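Quick log. Single chain, no ligands specified.
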Amino acid sequence: MKESLDDKNILEWYYNGFNDELKGTSHTMPEQELLIRAYSVGAVDAIVGDDVSSSDEQTEEMILKIIKKEF
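-> predicted structure:
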């Protein structure tokens, strides 16, 4: 089954990555590169969030722009 690539789904994968990094859990990775990127960006933001306040202050619009910038 092919995943939808709407903003809601992209943000869902971002938050999956963010929460998995904090909790030490994991999800089965999606097949779409954009969703994998969203997951990875979320995981990185979880790691740097305590040290970089601008990471914590990102809006969902800013997060989407970062994730989509190379696509």
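The chain has a mean pLDDT of 89.
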